[in-house]
Amino acid sequence: MVTIRLTKEFSFEMSHALEGYDGACRHIHGHSYKFFVTVCGEPCGDPMNPKYGMVMDFGELKRIVNEKVIDRFDHAFVIRHTDTNHELTDKISEHFGKVIAVSYQPTCENMLSDFASAIMAELPEDVQLYSLRLHETATSYAEWYYSDNIK
């Protein structure tokens, strides 16, 4: 059988601040993210299976990514949780709602690592996460590849 890659594109809006950073991104700002998720596997070879010829149903991939990434991060303010900012993030959350305090600096690179872990945990056993690409702007993006990260 052959191995096929499937890619699904997503988009979401998110703001963040890079606490402690020495550039402009230390300020609260937002992005219109484009997120590409690529999985790979062998298409189902059973003609009696309703998923015959599919590596994975695009609808199932969409459900997983929406549940684990998009629904969580869309229209959220994301900031690294620190001992010095937890009161501030609690206060912002009281007034504006969707504030996510993460254990890492919310850079494109770190978010990809987080997203990869969350998505891999939900994929069917015979489907592998191949790569992720997260565009922070139209001209800037980061990529995650399974082959670079799983040894």
Unreliable stretches: none
The ordered H/E elements are: EEHEHEHEEH
Which structural class matches the secondary elements? alpha/beta
Overall geometric form: elongated
Based on DSSP secondary structure assignment, what is the total number of beta strands? 6
Amount of helix: 25-40%
**Terminal residue distance:** 25 Å
Mean pLDDT: 94
Structural notes for this entry:
The model has no long low-confidence stretch (mean pLDDT 94). With 151 residues, the chain is an alpha/beta fold. Helix 2 links the parallel strand 3 and strand 4. The chain has helices spanning 58-73, 86-96, 108-120, 146-149, and strands spanning 4-17, 29-41, 76-80, 99-102, 128-135, 141-145. It starts with a strand and ends with a helix. Strands 4-3-1-2-5-6 form a 6-stranded mixed beta sheet, sandwiched between helices.
Which helices and strands occur, and which strands form pairs?
Blueprint: E1 4-17, E2 29-41, H1 58-73, E3 76-80, H2 86-96, E4 99-102, H3 108-120, E5 128-135, E6 141-145, H4 146-149
Parallel strand pairs: 1-3, 3-4
Antiparallel strand pairs: 1-2, 2-5, 5-6
Overview features:
alpha/beta, 6 strands
Condensed summary:
Helices cover 29% and strands 32% of the residues. It has four helices and six strands. Helix 2 links the parallel strand 3 and strand 4.
